[in-house]
Design goal:
heterotrimer; A mainly alpha (418); B mainly alpha (282); C alpha+beta (186); A: 418 residues; mainly alpha; Cytochrome Bc1 Complex, Chain C; Helix Hairpins; disordered C terminus; C: alpha+beta; 3-stranded antiparallel β-sheet; 4 helices; 10 strands; disordered N terminus
């Protein structure tokens, strides 16, 4: 999108369109000639995978709405109707439900990659912040979507999470009643969640377009963190990135479809096959796995309001990450201490997830609290400090130098690149 | 990458060690269901038609006296991947039930014999009637019983791996509850609630309101199989698993095609990627 | 070397063609479930036939039953109506074809081809105007049959179109007599 366009249509129809509406040019510049660093590894394919997962969720979602009934008396049965009677309904319903999980798997890898390679650093702060906004919209969408099948965990998850807002001083009760449209999670709640669950994905698409736009303005980061300096450093998006992304996507889909077809219930909760009952609370209310770390942070704080603040704060802190990280060097590859801190954060996040899945009893509480403190310490204390104290390794002078050096390492009897 | 592999190997080893040990540690008071191998388990597992037919007989003759099967229609019994009864058999079974239909042109509700398109008749008109007839306990709808109940409870550090291989143990749960009635230990027997039986496998147990439903030869199998309590429990557990997901066989066979296709596509894309990138250092 | 240049000499390479073809087949296969899910579900198909008892219908009366979501008109015709219907010259009809799912395709629209022989007092037909799908009103119109209020189509006592924009006679659904006064539609 930046710089001059190399699009030169030979097809007269395309030329005719391009002269009037430069959409072919936009597509060509964005997905064909767009230069990508030649040293991108497979961690960089998850942006493309996420794009496909988003489209897949929207398409299967639209299809499911054709058969689903958003009413407390019929929602549960209508999902069973989809699984039992609708042509391919069992696959489509599970594709959507398991798809949500794999959407989150991909987005977590994508975010972790951004943190490891310092993708949030100048000039990509807005690109990063749009990404955080995307994650928040995904979380809201996923949460409301999980309510729709109207099982026990749907209902009680909705009740617990909406009750978070009762922590707001003075207006808490009023806000919760307003969210519910009543005095409990009921039909009014289900219908508004359905409406918003259908709306938010399209908001998501809008923010994703901004995200991609910002990406194409600044250009892609890369594992060295050294900016692109010349044409030597890049390759054309098509065919190079296209075929690599396609391969990664195909492998990702092997795992995804294996779950859809052979373990469709594995990532969900058994108790959600029981219809919602407002009078009986399940023994353990556990959110979907992708919320567990944040759920653990919520429960780690003994105070209701502060717990909610901590939970939202744990994501909102990502917004200021570009300014918390004081290092001049982007990539963890050249930051020995930061690299270790990154892996500690990953372990900490995983521990939080395990804590979130277990009842808040005994030593789980202590572990959760330590992990929560470490989580915030990582962003608010360690990151700013280590950027100032650490001595980074020498950076390569350019991407192509780094690539040549790596290839030379691999084959000491250096063949010139064939 | 190497560390990841080592880690995975360690986890796998740990899991197998725990599994190998006979003492399956129950997380709560509920006893783990006995793990048996059903024909429908695994990636290629399909239902055993004869077993589903026997299981349906047990449901019809025993369970259906109190338990509904709301999500099922009689026509399901004839569809592929199930007990696969003939259309005539299904018509006859449906006709045994009475369906309230109408109103007719006079505004009266009419009773008529059931049709294959009808839902399984419920033994009680509503939840309250069901509870009133069963001493205040609600006989749960069985449509999704094997999906919503879990038979296996393991410590948190192995549970995710075991469930990936074995599922949640729902079918085993049903089977174990049905054949798991026992004399309460002396300690528990002291404060035995009235009208309840002792069943350590029951999820909200160990006291269960349902009296032991099965006894030797409670049903007579058409195929001559001996109707022991274990046999009937196993058969009806299989039948209820099918009722929880009548299209399981179609799902698995489609999944096999999809995954096979994706493996081939991935191989081709890998070769294409190598060819495209071959001339460029990266 | 220009970075934007695709490896030209390999373009016809078998590998590329194979990969593209396999990918295209997959994309096409993906469309099947997405399209087929909109076809009638198993529960809808199971309801595709209904039984109707004709005995309560008095001479000169009609009932309307719902079949596959559409009204089916069943009329116990008077002798006069049958006579009127038989007297019509087929050549005068706008649509000379019977439109009856129970007789051979393209049969003439004689009165007997619109009903079951021997049961000609009972006329069973879809209450869906062949113009744009409105429900015609009984005992109305210039031919003592049915009249569609939407755009003014007149049907006669055998449900044949006589005047107005509708192109075809009211279709007769597939049905059969289970007993003397009981039919199964569908």
């Amino acid at each position: 999108m930046s710089g001059h366009s190399t699009y030169n249509p030979t097809n007269p129809v395309m030329k005719w369109v391009d002269d009037r509406l430069p959409l072919p040019r936009l597509m060509y510049d964005s997905f064909v000639s767009y230069p990508v660093p030649r040293n991108l590894n497979y961690w960089y394919t998850f942006g493309g995978i996420l794009m496909i997962m988003m489209v897949s969720q929207i398409i299967t979602g639209i299809v499911l709405v054709m058969h689903y009934t958003p009413h407390v008396d019929m929602a549960f049965d209508s999902v069973e109707h989809i699984r039992r009677n609708v042509n391919f309904g069992n696959v489509l319903q599970k594709w959507h439900a398991v798809g949500a999980s794999f959407f989150f798997i991909a987005v977590y890898i994508h975010i972790a990659r951004g943190m490891y390679y310092g993708s949030y650093k100048a000039p990509r702060e807005i690109l990063w912040m749009l990404g955080v906004a995307i994650f928040l919209i995904m979380m809201a969408t996923g949460f409301m979507g999980y309510v729709l099948p109207w099982g026990q965990m749907s209902f009680w998850g909705a009740k617990v999470i909406t009750n978070l807002f009762s922590a707001v001083p003075f207006f808490g009760e009023a806000i919760v009643t307003w969210l519910w449209g009543g005095f409990s999670v009921d039909n009014a709640t289900l219908q508004r969640f359905f409406s918003l669950h259908y709306l938010l994905p399209f908001v998501l698409v809008g923010v994703v377009i901004l995200h991609v736009w910002a990406l194409h303005v600044t250009g892609q980061g890369n594992p060295t963190g050294v900016e692109v300096k010349s044409g030597q450093d890049t390759l054309a998006f098509t065919p190079f990135a296209t075929v690599k992304d396609a391969f990664a996507l195909s492998v990702f889909f092997i795992v995804f479809t294996a779950f859809v077809f052979f373990a469709p219930d594995y990532l969900g909760h058994s108790i959600n096959y029981e219809e919602a009952n407002p009078l009986v609370t399940p023994e353990h209310i556990v959110p979907e796995w992708y919320y567990l770390p944040f759920y653990a942070i919520l429960r780690a704080v003994p105070d209701k309001l502060l717990g909610v603040v901590a939970m939202f704060g744990s994501i909102l802190v990502w917004f200021i990450l570009p300014w918390l990280d004081t290092s001049k060097v982007r990539s963890a590859t050249y930051r020995p201490i930061f690299k270790q801190l990154f892996w500690l954060l990953m372990i900490d996040f995983f521990i939080l997830g395990v804590v979130g899945a277990n009842p808040p009893e005994g030593w789980w509480i202590t572990v959760g609290q330590i992990a929560t403190v470490y989580y915030f310490a990582h962003f608010l204390i360690l990151l700013p400090l280590v950027g100032l104290l650490e001595t980074p390794k020498p950076l390569p002078s350019s991407i192509s130098d780094a690539v040549l050096a790596k290839n030379a390492d691999k084959q000491p009897a250096a063949q010139p690149a064939e | 990458m190497k560390t990841t592999k080592t880690l995975l190997a360690a986890i796998a080893l740990g899991t197998s060690l725990v599994l190998g040990g006979t003492a399956a540690v129950a997380a709560g008071k509920q006893k783990n269901a006995e793990d048996i191998s059903f024909s429908f388990e695994g990636v290629f597992g399909n239902f055993d038609r004869a077993q589903l037919q026997r299981g349906f007989l047990v449901y019809k003759e025993v369970c259906a006296a109190c338990h509904s099967l709301d999500q099922m229609s009689y026509r399901n019994l004839a569809q592929p991947g199930g007990p696969e009864l003939s259309v005539d058999q299904v018509k006859a079974i449906a006709a045994e039930s009475t369906v309230m239909d109408g109103p007719d042109s006079e505004g009266e509700m009419v009773e008529r014999p059931g049709l294959p398109a009808d839902k399984f008749a419920s033994p009680f008109p509503n939840r309250e009637a069901a509870m009133a007839a069963n001493g205040g306990a609600y006989p749960v709808d069985l449509s999704l019983i094997t999906k919503k109940r879990e038979g296996f409870h393991f410590p948190w550090y192995v549970s995710p791996f075991i469930k990936l291989v074995k599922g949640n143990g729902g079918p085993e749960y049903v089977r174990s509850v049905l054949m798991g009635y026992e004399e309460p230990p002396a300690e528990a027997a002291k404060d035995a609630p009235e009208g309840k039986s002792y069943n350590p496998y029951f999820s909200a147990g160990p006291w269960i309101s349902m009296a032991p439903p099965l006894s030797e030869d409670a049903v007579e199998y058409a195929d001559g199989t001996k109707a022991s309590v274990e046999q009937m429990s196993t058969d009806v557990a299989a039948f209820l698993t099918w009722a929880g997901e009548p299209k399981m066989e179609q799902r698995k066979s489609m999944g096999f095609q999809v995954v096979l296709y994706l493996v081939i596509l991935s191989l081709l894309l890998f070769l294409t990627k190598k060819r495209v990138w071959g001339r460029e250092p990266h | 070397m220009s970075t934007a240049e695709a490896p030209d000499e390999d373009r016809r390479d078998f590998l590329y063609i194979a990969t593209g073809a396999v990918g295209a087949v997959g994309a096409a296969a993906l469309a099947i479930p997405l399209i087929d899910q909109m076809n009638p579900s198993a529960s809808v198909l199971a309801l595709a036939s209904i039984e109707v008892d004709l005995s309560p219908i008095e001479v000169g009366q009609s009932i309307t039953v719902k079949w596959r979501g559409n009204p089916v008109i069943i009329r116990h015709r008077t002798a006069k109506e049958i006579e009127e219907a038989k007297a019509v010259n087929i050549a005068d009809l706008p649509d000379p074809i019977a439109r009856n799912a129970n007789v051979a395709d393209g049969s003439e629209a004689t009165d007997v081809n619109r009903v079951v022989d021997g049961k000609e007092q009972y006329l069973v037909q879809m209450g869906v105007c062949t113009h744009l799908g409105c429900v015609p009103i009984g005992n109305e119109g210039e031919y003592d049959g049915w009249f569609c209020p939407c755009h003014g189509s007149h049907y006669d006592t055998a449900g044949r179109i006589r005047k107005g924009p509708a192109p075809e006679n009211l279709p007769v659904p597939e049905y059969k007599y289970l007993s003397d006064a009981k039919i199964q539609i569908g």
